[in-house]
Amino acid sequence: MRTDEPILRIEDLAVYFKTIDGDAKVLDGVDISIHKGEVVALVGETGCGKSVTGKTILGSLPIPPAKIVRGRCFFKGKDLLSLDKDERREIISNNISYVPQDPMTSLNPVFTIGEQMLALIRWHGKKRAGLRAFLGRYNKRDDSWGKAIELLNKVKIPSPEMILNRYPVELSGGMRQRVLIAMSLIGNPSLLIADEPTTALDVTIQKGIIELIKEKVEEENLSVLYITHNLGVARKLSDRIYVMYAGNIVETAKTSELLDSPLHPYTQGLIKSIPKLTGEEFRGIDGRIPDYIYPPSGCRFHPRCDRAIEKCSMEKPKLLRIKDSHSVACHIYSYKEVTSVIDERSDITG
Amino acid sequence: MSLYFTLRRISHMVLVLLGISILIFFLARILPGDPARLTLGPEATKEQVQNLRHQLGLDKPIYIQYYMFLKDLMRGKLGVSLITKRDVSKDLLQRFPATLELVCFAMTLAIIIGIPLGVESALHKDKFIDYFSRIFAFTGVSMPRFWLGIMLQLIFAYVLSLFPLTGRISGMPPRHITGLYILDSILTGNGRAFVDSLSHIILPATTLSLSPLAQITRLIRANMIEQLRKDYTIVSRIGGMPENLNIYKFMLKNAFMSTLTIIGLLFGWMLGNAFLVETVFSWPGIARYGVNSVLRKDFNAVIGVTLLVGFGYITVNFIVDLLYRYLDPRIRLRK
């Protein structure tokens, strides 16, 4: 574990959603930290609260119905959640950027790519735009035009000049995602939050986008929170993985360590459920993600866990460090010495 | 492509107008009562009535009458009005600018007040301004036009004496260019006529615009609330787009799109409802002329007014269609 202050540190974050039947306790004490230059993947099933975590950091949660019950979110030492709206917006727009999940709905359909990019380049981070922003079109003599071309070249879009005059409807999904990645680089961010940016794309295009993100991360020295349900993508991109289950972080470790020797029964199940081409028997995890309004007592995973002990339904396990940078929240490890943990591990992988 | 579209739409418009003309022509003939008798009065002899019927062509079979009507129409004639004894097309030409001015002014009011009100209402959902605009919209839609007109006259013209009670202008009208007094006085630089005609139009236009204003406000509000949840709104907000630019340019263009259709339809609504307003404010427009002709069975005038209103309605919707294509690339680019 590094000793320097992480660029992003989330502590004990709890976010509830108001519903007619009661509060849905979606995030229930989440801790995540990201160091400078580190690519962190947040992995979990659909509906486990990954995107809510991202949205909370970006300040784009719909409040209400959402409410932040407790927790802090330090970015470069400042708690984003305790700042007022304008201050938070300023910090986010100048430091944190976002690549959305669905490129088909994330570009404004009635403006050209140029109009959208140039407005963002020209007025980025300003409190109010001048009258000029509303009138007329942009021309090629503008500085922002050059900057837009430069950004589109960075994301390897062929003939960027032509793309700037196109409407989103004229571009393919992969092209739109490239444009969105280019737009996310406008403010020279230090942290990038990507919310399943390849989920809506064809598998063949996914690969290109993942490689592009990887390349940009290295070029721009970005720290990344990469939200995905796909462990394969996480393995390719990330330095470290957080595994989330029903609004709790259940395990975190260096990517290779987590994949080679997972400790939490949920992580083990998740890895086993990746379909393999070698003809091994395909296994999933029984059951579904639990109800958030009346979540299971104790460990939220215990009703689905085949190794649950009595304590699991009574007390919520804390995230304990087992080894350097490998932590797990599970009662079966809290009794045992580290050595026996390693025995346990050889059990599983053997 | 665009030229082809325009030509196709224009040919549609001609067909629709032809349909309207057939419908109104036969309806006007079927209406009970003899126009010749009504014109000449109970004192006239049978021969006199018969003569007038012959003169008007009313003794011929109805399809021949329609054929003759079409032939006249091609030459820009709509037949003689039985009330004014002039060609109906002349009467209409004289009165139409008054109605056009009233409707356009009212629509402008409705749009420039309705849109910001709807936007602010959406941004401050369930806050004071939202409640205010919703109550205002509800009142606007449900208030009877003629009653509102009389109330405005009572308060602003009679008690406060801020605006004139009736009419279109008190002094000399500006030199005739378009027939729209406000536009003409601007074009000729006639300040006195400008103030004069502006002070006359405010009360009737307000009366006419209140309901469309309310509908535009509500639509914009609903569409903007939807826009606030769109992915592209969230993405550009996180990206640091200034709020005013994001709202009044990038979101509003989307929100305005579906409101545009309603604005086209509201134009037609206004032409119909102008009658009440024109009557209350003695506004010399075609709506009042049309109603008088119906009551007096002045069939040529009835047909003329109906065709003109129909033409106006079709033209506005044609313009709306063109605007749609201009505003929305998804429609423009579809082959």
Give the helix/strand layout:
The complex is a heterodimer of chains A (350) and B (335).
Chain A (H helix, E strand, L loop, with lengths): L7 E12 L2 E13 L4 E5 L6 H9 L7 E10 L2 E2 L5 H11 E4 L13 H11 L19 H12 L5 H5 L8 H12 L6 E5 L7 H18 L2 E6 L2 H7 L2 E6 L2 E7 H6 L4 H8 L47 E4 L2 E3 L2 H4 L3 H12 L1
Parallel strand pairs in A: 3-8, 3-9, 6-7, 7-8
Antiparallel strand pairs in A: 1-2, 1-4, 4-5, 9-10, 10-12, 11-12
Helix pairs in contact in A: 3-4, 4-6, 6-7
Chain B lengths: L1 H29 L4 H6 L5 H11 L5 H13 L13 H36 L4 H15 L2 H15 L21 H7 L3 H38 L2 H8 L4 H38 L5 H10 L3 H29 L1 H4 L3
Helix pairs in contact in B: 1-13, 5-6, 5-9, 5-11, 6-9, 7-9, 7-11, 8-9, 9-11, 11-12, 11-13, 12-13
Jot down its keywords.
heterodimer, A: 350 residues, alpha/beta, Rossmann fold, eight-stranded mixed beta sheet, four-stranded antiparallel beta sheet, 12 helices, disordered C terminus, B: 335 residues, mainly alpha, MetI-like fold, 0% strand
What is the H-and-E element order of chain A?
EEEHEEHEHHHHEHEHEEHHEEHH
The separation of the N and C termini of chain A measures 28 Å
Give the averaged pLDDT of chain B, no decimals: 85
Report the uncertain regions of chain A: 337-350
> Based on helices, strands and strand pairing, what is the structural class of chain B?
mainly alpha
Morphology of chain B: globular
**Name of the CATH class of one domain in chain A:** Alpha Beta
Largest sheet of chain A: 8 strands, mixed
Number of discrete helical segments of chain A: 12
Secondary structure: helix percent of chain A: 25-40%
Q: Helicity of chain B, in percent? A: over 70%
Assembly classification? heterodimer
The class by helix and strand makeup of chain A works out as: alpha/beta
User: How large is the share of residues in beta strands of chain A?
Assistant: 15-25%
Q: What is the overall silhouette of chain A?
A: globular
Give the name of the CATH superfamily of one domain in chain A: P-loop containing nucleotide triphosphate hydrolases
**What is the third-level CATH name, the topology of one domain in chain A?**
Rossmann fold
